Predict the structure.
Amino acid sequence: MNGGLRIGNREAEHVHASCQTEVEVKHGVGLHARPSVTFTRLAKSFPCSIEVAVNGSDVWLNGKSIIKIMGARIRKGSILKIRADGILAEEAIRALKDLIERNFDEEKKHGRTA
Amino acid sequence: MAAPLRLKATGASPGVASGPAYIAEPPAVAAMSPSAVSGHAALAAAIETAIDELQNLATGSDAESGDIIDFQIEVLRDPTIAEMAGARIDAGENAVFAWVATLDGYVRELESAEEEQLRARAVDILDIKNRVLAALTGTPVEDFPVGSIYVGKDMEPSRFLAHDWSAGGGIALYAGSAAGHVALLARSRSVPMVIGVGRFTTKRGQHIGVDGDSGVVILQAGKKNAPPPQAAHQMTNAAAITDNGNLRTADGSQVLLSINVNAPDEVDAIPAATTAGIGLMRSEFVVTSLGDAANEEKQFSVYRRLLDWADGRSVTIRMLDIGGDKPLSGLTEISSLRGIRLLLVRPEIARVQARALLRAAVFGNLRIMLPMVTFPSEVDGMRQIYREESSELARRGVPHRVPPIGMMVEVPAAALMLDQFESADFFSFGTNDLAQYLVASPREDADFALSQARAVPAMLRLLRQAVKLAGSKPLSICGDMAGDPSLTADLLAAGIRHFSVAPARLPAIRSAIVGLNADGTKAAGE
C-alpha cells in the first residue's frame, strides 16, 4: 500500500509543472465569440491553471474565462503570452499554441464567416 | 340520497359553484432559505438547469444558432462569473440578486464595447440571465383540477392566479378573511368563495357546493341539483357601452370609471373602450417570487402588454406591495416591512421594477403608483431611484420615459396630510388598508368585515377631508369601497370623480353613477 502511494506521488510530481509560451494570432477576426469559445473550452479541459497576457501587458487573464478572453481585444497580429501551472501544464500549453496556429480550426468549421 | 348537509360560513365572493372537492395540502415552507450555503447551491443548480435547456435547444439547430448557444453555455460555465456571483452571496446578497448584478455588470460592459461584434453579444447574455432566473424561481405551486372546489385552511394568491377558473369552480376556506387578498382576487374574477367554514371533512373528489351569496358550503350536493357554472365574465352586457369609462352624472358632471387588474390576462375579455383604462394594476400578483422581482424582461413584457391593451388610455401600475401579509416567495428577511418601506430598504428590487416601468412608459400612457406611503420623504426617496435609473438608461441609449409618479392613500397618517405630499403627481385611495388601520383590526380577522362596515362614517369623513387636501391633483379611489354601489352616492358627495373597480363591478357602478347627481343625491325620477 505504501509503495503504491509513493508511485502516485512520483507520477504527480512528474506531470505537475509550470510552462509558458508566446504565439502570434493570425486569425482575421481575432478572438471573437466562436474562436474564444473554442479556446476556453480547450483550456478548461486541462486541470492546471491557464493565464493569458496580450501584447506584453503584465495583466494575466484567466484563460478559462470566456468573458476575460473576449474582453481582451485580441486582434490579428496580437502577441499572446500563455502560461500554465499545475498538472498537465506542458500538454496544455502545447495544445493551446497548436490551436492558435491552426487559426482555431475556423476554416474547418464555417469557412470565412465571422 | 340523504338531504344535503349545509355548513354555515361567510360569503367572501358572490356566486354559486359546485364540483369535486380538492383538499389542499398545507403550503410548503419558503422554497429558498436565505443562508449563503444554500444560495451557492441554488445558483449552481439553476445554472446547470439552464445549461441542460440550452443543450436541448442546440440539438437540431442550425450552425449559426448552435454557435450562439455554445457561447451562452460557455458564459454559464465561466469561472470568473461564478466567482463574482459567489463573492456577492458570501457578502450576504441573495442568490437571485447576486446573479442579476453580476450579469448586468457584464451586459453593460458589452454594451459599451467599441466593437459592434461585442455589443451584439449583450442580448445573448440577457437571455441566459433570464434563463437562470427562471430556474431560480423555484418549483411552481401544484395546480388542482379545473372546475373543482378548492378546500383548505387558506389559499396563496399565486395558487389562485396559476389556476384556470374559466371552467368554473369555487373556494371554501376553513379560516380566511373576506378582506384578504385571495377574496379580492376571487371577487375580481367572479369566483364564488366562502370563508370561516371551520374544519370539515370531505373526501377528495366528493361533489360539494359553495354558495357565496348566502355563505354556505353544501356537502353531499347531488350532481343533478348543481346549478350551472357561474358565467365566467359578466362583462358581455356591458361590452356595448363603449364610452371609454367617461360617464356623466345625472346632472352632467364628468366621472371616470377604470378597472383594477391583478394579472395581464384578466383584460383579455374586457374591451378597453368600456373603461377609462386601468386605475390600479397590482404588480405583486404578477411578480410572485424573488426570481420574478429580479426579472426586468418579464416585468417589462407584462407592463407592455397592458399598455398595448389600453391603446392610449391611462394605465396605473402600482409598484410591488410586498411584505407583511403579502410575502414574496424567496424573500424571508425583514418581512415586517411592507410596500414602499420594504422597497426603499431593498432598492435592488425597486430598481429592477423601476427600469422595467421606465422602459415600458415609452409604449403608452403609464402612471406609476407607490404603495403604503406614510411620509413625503418616501416619495422623494423613490423619485431619486427613478432619476438614477433613468440617467443610467440614457447613458446606455435605452429608450425610456419618466411617467407621472403618484401614491396610494391607504395609511391614515398620509390621508390626513395629503397637502404635504408635493412630490406625488396623483393620489388614489386604497380603502381596504385605510379601513384596516383606521379601525385597528387585522384583515385576517373574520369579523374585520363587521368593523369595516361600522367604520364607514369615519372613512367617509377621512375621505372628504383628504379630497380637500389633495387640491387640484388627479385623485381616484381603487379600494373595495369603490366597487360597492351602496356607497357610490357617499363617495360622489365626498368629491371623488374617478372610480377604479374590479371588472365584474363595472355594470353596477356605472348604473349607480349615472343615476345620481354629483352631490350624491338621487336624480329626479329615480
About this structure: Chain B has three domains: 5-30+141-225, 36-136, 246-514. Chain B touches chain A through 19 residues (CB under 8 Å).
